[in-house]
Amino acid sequence: MCMAYAFVGFGLILLIIGSEAVLRGGTGLSRNIGLSPLLIGLLVVSIGTGAPEMVVSLQATLRQAPDLALGTIIGSNIVNLLLVLGLGALIRPIPASPNMVLRDGGVLILSSVTLLALVEAGSVPRGGGLALLGGFAVYVVICFLTDWRRPPLDSGAQARALSSGDRAMTPAVNTILLLFGLACLNFGGSYVVDGSLAIARFNHVPEEVIGLTLVAVGSSLPELATTVTASIRGHSSLAAGNLIGSNIVNILLALGLAASVRPLTLSHQVAGMDIYVMTAAAVVVPLVMASRWRLSRGRGVFLVLAYLSYLGFLAWRQGLVPAGIL
User: Fold this and answer.
1) Following DSSP, what letter does each residue of 33-82 receive, concatenated?
2) What's this model's pTM, rounded to 2 decimal places?
3) pLDDT tens-place string over residues 6-16
4) CATH number of the domain that 169 lies in?
């Protein structure tokens, strides 16, 4: 059993290293070939940021573990919106531009509701996966059309691109870094999925619970570190946009790719309360940020407490907490 946890831990480390390497190598290589910062932010940075969830969901799908694949996506989105964003706001109130809240927040709500409808139907068919990928393509086009004339500081995608990568690295170094990152992602995803399935079997825990908790929190560590660091340094303006964008990528790109490769047939359990928690968070967070266009410390406390309450509910559901306590 200890070996299974070690597999997951080592795999998560490889995923984090691989994601950062892909992000830096891909961004640097894109700059080398002359790609604009806006396109780099929309394509390279968004894919690099969502790489851990994307790889885990894809490899879980290939191993015929759809509940783990979906549980990882749902859990990661809940962690990003409630825990990570809440902790960032606790450190320093997070400003939110109307463009980000209305456009990106609106796409997040629409994506989450679409996923809810698919999960309630009991499966994400290949056609549904292709539709999600098409939605991601439409989202990228909308972002490009609305941001291409904006100054870099007013465009989250451009700002993320300018803050990633190293301009001094040569194309050869960037290519090596990119290939190294892809290899780390591949092996890391395999370790995480194999270890997670072993933990689920040994402890008689549903696969989606492992995805909702252990894998989701582990794969969200890069977003947590980035958000906390940015808030401490007073650069929290991009935190909300980064997290909302990451959640959009998780649903439209990561899950869309997984379902396009192999249709996901879901168990009854995975269509339970968790997908509603994710959808509720996707609706509430943009609405909260639209009030005065900022996320205050008080609202950050609310988000963190909401996540802790959700963890308590999960523990109670698995019989780890006596019924009289919750």
Assistant:
1) TT--HHHIIIIIIHHHHTHHHHHHHHHHHHTT-HHHHHHHHHHHHHIIII
2) 0.88
3) 888 898 899 88
4) 1.20.1420.30
